[in-house]
């Protein structure tokens, strides 16, 4: 369970999650967008994620809430097959924006 992040600009954040998205990782990634109040747009790349528990789902919902409060968006990019299934089973595929790639998410945000 690791992640990498970068900011294409001061108001946007791209986080790539690898392996498990569990409680420990959820705390770490949530802290990034919570502590940096300039971040409005969050892109979460889930293409290399293998397992997501309820803490990971909670982090995504939290990120969406934070982004909306700041008049921004949270976009899920390239979810793995396992993640797509979890999002569909929980109904989050209807509330979270999902795009095929990080590049599509960046283009959607005009970056």
Task: Write a brief structural summary.
The chain contains four helices and five strands. Helix 1 (23-35) runs parallel beside helix 2 (54-69). A five-stranded mixed beta sheet has the order 1-2-3-4-5, with helices on both faces.
What this model shows, in words?
With 111 residues, this protein is α/β, with parallel strands linked by helices. The protein has one domain (2-108): STAS domain (Transcription Regulator spoIIAA, 2-Layer Sandwich), CATH 3.30.750.24. 41% of the residues lie in helices and 33% in strands. It has 4 helices and 5 strands, in the order ββαβαβαβα. It has helices spanning 23-35, 54-69, 81-90, 102-108; strands at residues 2-9, 12-21, 41-52, 74-77, 97-99. Strands 1-2-3-4-5 form a 5-stranded mixed sheet, sandwiched between helices. Helix 1 packs parallel to helix 2 (54-69). The mean pLDDT is 95.
Assign the CATH topology.
Transcription Regulator spoIIAA
> Count the strands?
5
Radius of gyration: 12 Å
Per CATH, the architecture is 2-Layer Sandwich
CATH class: Alpha Beta
Order of helices and strands: EEHEHEHEH
Give the oligomer, counting copies of the same chain as homo and different chains as hetero.
Answer: single chain
Q: Quick one: biggest sheet?
A: 5 strands, mixed
Strand content: 25-35%
N-to-C span: 28 Å
- Structural class by secondary-structure content: alpha/beta
Per DSSP, the total helix count is: 4
Order of adjacent strands in the largest pleated sheet: 1-2-3-4-5
CATH superfamily: STAS domain
